[in-house]
């Protein structure tokens, strides 16, 4: 029975650390730019084509 208590406490600590890391990344601006990652490959290809000509 003691093992279950230890595992529950450990699981709560790990979940709490992930929650703190998520809020820290959100506050730091990690998720602000949602447009450019989706078109970054297109922009890089246009630059490579311009260098070849």
Explain how this protein is built.
The chain has 53 residues and is mainly α. Helices cover 83% and strands 0% of the residues. The chain contains 2 helices and no strands. The protein has helices at residues 2-28, 36-52. It is elongated and about 65 Å long.
Structural class: mainly alpha
Order of helices and strands: HH
What Rg, in angstroms, do the CA atoms define?
22 Å
Helical percent range?
A: over 70%
Please give the count of helices: 2
Main sheet record: none
Beta-strand share of residues: under 5%
Q: How many beta-strand elements?
A: 0
Give the uncertain stretches in residue-range form. none
- Intertermini distance: 72 Å
The dominant shape is elongated
Determine the mean pLDDT: 82
Secondary-structure topology with pairs:
Layout: H1 2-28, H2 36-52
Summarize the structure.
This protein has 53 residues and is mostly helical. It has two helices and no strands.
């Amino acid at each position: 029975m003691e093992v279950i208590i230890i595992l529950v406490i450990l699981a709560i600590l790990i979940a709490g650390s992930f929650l703190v890391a998520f809020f820290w990344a959100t506050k730091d601006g990690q998720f602000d730019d949602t447009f450019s990652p989706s078109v970054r490959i297109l922009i890089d290809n246009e630059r490579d084509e311009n260098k070849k000509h």
